[in-house]
Amino acid sequence: MNLQENIKQQLAFMAPNTQQLDAQVSFSRLQADHRIPDEDIFIVAHQMQQNVPLHQHDFYEFIYVINGTVLNLIDDEAIYILPNSLFLMNLQSRHALKIVDSQAIIINIGLRKELFAAGVFAQFKAETNPVADFLRNKGHHSYLYYPLPHDLQINATINYLVGEYARNQFHSSYSLQAFVLLLLDQLQKEKKYSYYGVNQRCMKIISMINSDCQHASLSALAQKLNFNENYLSRYVKKYTGNTVSELIQGIRLKKSCSLLTETDLSIEKIAQQIGYASTSHFYRIFKANLNVTPETYRQNSRIQSN
Known about the structure:
Layout: H1 3-14, H2 27-32, E1 41-47, E2 52-56, E3 59-67, E4 70-74, E5 77-81, E6 85-89, E7 94-99, E8 105-112, H3 119-126, H4 130-135, E9 143-147, H5 152-167, H6 174-189, H7 200-211, H8 218-225, H9 229-240, H10 244-262, H11 267-274, H12 279-290, H13 294-305
Antiparallel strand pairs: 1-8, 2-7, 3-6, 3-8, 4-5, 4-7, 6-9
Helix pairs in contact: 5-6, 10-11
């Protein structure tokens, strides 16, 4: 599978219940042209096949990972950006990117400071909310991390934003501005975010859950790590934006999506394998997070792969 096909497939799965991007859109151009356009809004996509040296931009940079994991070195910290996560950096950010997975694909959304000089964007920046405060550098945080693996609305907005940019021949438009404003508004309402991000210790915790999500729990993790349960809860929430339960649920849902797509296992077997004793409970969790039933997700994924 070439990069163009990979990007299109990944974007199709970002929001399984939303309209897919135009099949004729050339994502290879989005990836191939690394020049930064002289426009207030621009988007560049690339595969992490080489390290990116330390640098600083004069625009706000939003990194969205659609496949794989990327290591972002920023403020003397090593932060892992996971799939379907959004990493916001303001004008004070100096960072470098390191290869963790050479197949990782990232989308860079660039917003120039001139965009926020007047009109509705200036009004948004002047408000009091986590995103507006961050854009104004209130609190002196140079980055803001949003874990969004199953947030259908925000993933769909990013999907449409990228699609609009590509359909408009990789130039800004009124529709693109509308999608960016919608994204900012959705982010300021989102409760799951972190000023710290996923560090190496959090990656260890995530790896432990990944290796045995069937039996994962707060008490089991605390025992293995020799942590107090309350301390572990606070630590995970601080660095990932999720509670331990939400982290476990997200990993279980991700594994269930893979099993639904790649195997013919029954829904009951899948529910058991990922840690749900009750199939009906798994149905409720899946539908609440992905807005489709497991059967519909399996059918849609197979249609998209053909």
